[in-house]
Specification:
The complex is a heterodimer. Chain A is an all-alpha fold. Chain A has helices at about 10-35, 40, 55-60, 65-70, 85-90, 100-110, 130-135, 140-145, 160-170, 190-200, 210-215. By secondary structure, chain B is mainly alpha-helical. The chains are: A mainly alpha, B mainly alpha.
């Protein structure tokens, strides 16, 4: 009886069956990498805004404290996006005719808020409170990244639950002294492990990993 | 499955009555392969397939509507949050267990009477598990997130809840599906080679040829094949017990009266084998009639299946009795009430219908007259199928609708979408079965050939 298949099918079938495991592994790796890439997570992707506000200029070059604009961060769950009046505290005196700042002046004139594009947001089913994090020694730049280097603002972290759990499971790796929380140029010291362990005890930081902590 | 030409019958059942004498290796092969290659698509098959396919389309409609609107289209509510979806899931999984028992356990026990029924019983298992698998997916509020049940590196940084039997189900059912598929496919390889060699068209030759994986029937191939079959049988055997045990844990691990009882694992496994054999019987009788396979699926096969049904039915009856006894013996007022509610509450007619279908009527199988009567066996097997569905309904719905707090009591009334989804899965099952009958040998050709010599010897001896 004549052969039905060319003898190359011997090789092809062996390759595909034994190689199947590797193909599956490769596929899973590819999926994972794509899923964690900025294309999917939008990490480090600058967002377009109605006015090209530069944190690099205002924080990095001028040295304005985070709390000047984000006023409720120490007391409330929401850090606060500044009203146009805050911008006008300076820009009524400097750069008063700059074309770039026309939307700001228009907003102040017409009493209409600027529609900022939200960069850092958590889903509605997550409860997050800024004030407790700030109070316990988590710095602004720990979660929001090197803000002083951002000419346009981007999200520095995935804000995934696994990312939150990284710190909640081991806060000693990320905690700072309270006086360092608002320092935009803070670099964790070489003895972070030691310092962290001390601060966790001093600030009474618990490893809160119960579901209802955040999913209330 | 014994090696062809083997004379070793020590410890194995004798082959009398398993294959009508007068067959040769050629006639056995011709008869079974002609169903696939010789007849083409007959009107009878097409008619049955059309009905099955129509029901499958009903399933498509029901599932689409479910995905768009949500599980509210079903009759589930609080407190009966598990309705038909879970009843049907357990029913289908249970049916699948007979195929694995016949293929694996009877193989290891060297029971020759498994030969003509094991191929389509194993196919039945696969299709039943496929139907069963749709329900845990569909009953999720967001079925498209079903992959969250798996242990993969996820953005949530958590593992699935390994303490939950619902997660164990994921592993148990997917293992069962994988092993059954492998076992069935490996078992098919020599027969696929037969079909490849007898194929009339080039297309059939190529398709069967690909799946036959280059089988030549050489001694080396057979040797490896025997080992592979024994290994797979060894792998599949624990699954017969473990899969339905894990499914029973869905209930037994909870605190609900009527569910929280240790009798559930063995009682569920026995019930699974009971309903599975009933389904094998329900399928075997029309198949052998329509395709003229009475020479291969003999009264001995049907008689043995009836005996297994009777035995497992008695174990299930024992399970019911123990549930009732323990409820009262425990002194727990909630357990006592749950049993009394089954017998006298609003769903009592279902309970008593269950006792009639599962315990009373199958006692007829004690009588050889009923065991040898094909119409009687068909009717009884259908009744047992219904009875086993009712058992899952009684367990799921009646225990849920009245538990600890009377202010939480409720009623479950299945909606048309509940029924449509159920009928639809029957359509899926039958569609796959019809496709199987049309394109694959319903009986294991090489295993039947193995019986030819023994029946010839038996004939010569008399």
């Amino acid at each position: 009886m004549a052969q039905i298949f060319h003898h190359s099918t011997n090789l092809i079938s062996r390759l595909s069956i034994y190689g199947g495991v590797f193909i599956l592994a490769l596929l899973s790796y590819a999926l994972y990498t794509i899923g964690m890439s900025p294309w999917y997570t939008d990490v480090n992707v600058a967002r377009e805004q109605p006015v090209p506000f530069s944190h690099k200029h205002h924080v990095g070059e001028l040295g304005i404290d985070c709390r000047y604009c984000h006023t409720s961060v120490e007391k409330s769950s929401f850090a606060g996006v500044p009203p146009t009046q805050t911008c006008m505290t300076c820009h009524s005196q400097i750069w008063t005719n700059a074309a770039m700042l026309e939307p700001v002046r228009a907003s102040y004139r017409d009493d209409k808020s600027i529609s900022w594009t939200r960069v850092n947001a958590l889903p509605d089913f997550v409860y997050f409170d800024h004030s407790i994090h700030v109070h316990k020694g988590i710095g602004c730049t720990t979660c929001h990244g090197e803000i002083a280097a951002m000419p346009i603002t981007w999200r520095a972290n995935t804000l995934y639950m696994s990312w939150c759990l990284d710190c909640h499971r081991a806060p000693e790796n990320y905690v700072r002294k309270r006086e360092d929380v608002f320092k935009p140029d803070y670099v964790p010291p070489a003895n972070q492990a030691e310092l962290g362990a001390k601060l966790v005890q001093e600030y009474k930081i618990q490893k809160l990993t119960n579901c209802s902590t955040c999913h209330r | 499955m014994s090696p062809e030409g083997s004379h070793n019958t020590a410890g194995a059942t004798d082959a009398s009555g398993l294959l009508r004498p007068g067959h040769t290796l050629g006639t056995v092969t011709d008869k079974i392969s002609s169903i696939v290659l010789g007849r083409g698509t007959t009107k009878g098959w097409l008619f049955g397939f059309a009905i099955a396919f129509a029901l499958l389309m009903l399933l498509m409609v029901a599932v689409t509507y479910l995905l768009v609107v949500g599980v509210g289209i079903w009759g589930i509510n609080i407190p009966i949050s598990w309705g038909f979806a879970i009843v049907n899931f357990v029913w289908w999984i249970g049916i699948g267990h007979a195929g694995t028992l016949i293929s694996a356990i009877l193989l290891l026990l060297k029971q020759k009477w498994r030969t003509s029924i094991n191929r389509f019983a194993e196919a039945m298992t696969l299709f039943a598990v496929a139907c069963a698998g749709t329900f845990p997916l569909l009953h999720l509020g967001r079925p498209w997130l079903a992959y969250w049940l798996g242990p993969y590196p996820n953005p949530m940084g958590t593992w699935p809840q390994f303490r939950s039997p619902l997660v164990w189900d994921v592993f148990a059912v997917s293992t069962y599906l994988t092993v059954s598929l492998l076992f069935w496919f490996v078992g098919l390889i020599p027969d696929l080679a037969t079909l490849r060699d007898r194929a009339r068209s080039r297309a059939a030759q190529v398709v069967y040829g690909i799946f036959a994986m280059g089988w030549r029937g050489s001694a080396v191939h057979w040797h490896r094949y025997e080992i592979a079959s024994l290994l797979l049988a060894g792998l599949a055997t624990p699954l017969v017990v473990s899969v339905h045990t894990v499914v029973s844990f869905d209930f037994a691990v909870s605190q609900l009266p009527g569910w929280h009882t240790t009798i559930f694992p063995p009682y569920f496994v026995a019930g699974a084998i009971y309903s599975g054999f009933a389904m094998v019987m329900t399928l075997a009788i029309p198949i052998r009639k329509y395709y003229g396979l009475e020479d291969f699926i003999t009264m001995r096969h049907l008689g043995n299946m009836a005996k297994v049904m009777l035995a497992t039915g008695l174990i299930v009856a024992y399970g019911y009795m123990m549930e009732t006894f323990m409820a009262f013996y425990s002194g727990n007022p909630f357990d006592k009430f749950s049993i009394l509610n089954r017998m006298t509450g609003p769903y009592a007619p279902f309970y008593w219908l269950l006792i009639l279908c599962n315990i009373a009527i199958p006692q007829l199988l004690w009588s050889p007259r009923f065991r040898q009567s094909v119409p009687a066996l068909f009717v009884i097997s259908l009744i047992v199928n219904v009875g086993m569905w009712l058992e899952r309904f009684v367990i799921v719905v009646i225990s849920l609708h009245r538990d600890f707090l009377p202010s939480s009591w409720g009623t479950y009334i299945p909606t048309r979408w509940d029924w449509a989804t159920y009928a639809g899965t029957i359509g899926l099952f039958l569609t796959l079965l019809y496709l199987f009958i049309r394109f694959l040998p319903v009986i294991s050709i090489y295993e039947m050939r193995g019986l030819v010599e023994e029946t010839q010897e038996g004939q010569k001896a008399t």
